Amino acid sequence: MLRTESADRERLCRLSKEGDRQARDDLWRSLRPMVSGFLGKRVRRPDHAEDLVQGTLTRADAALGSFRGDCPVSQWVLRIAVNELRRYYERGLRSIDDPLPDEDLQRSDEGPGPYNRVEDRQFVERILDAAKRACSNPEFTVLMLLYRGESLAEVGEMLGLDDATVRSHHRRGRAKLIAELITHEPDLVGGQDAINEAVRRCEGSGGLSVEEREAIDQRSGKAEILRSACLKIAKYLPSAVGSVLLGGLR
Question: What secondary structure does DSSP assign to 168-230, as a single string?
Answer without folding.
Answer: HHHHHHHHHHHHHHHHH-GGGGT-HHHHHHHHHHHHHTT---HHHHHHHHHT-S-HHHHHHHH
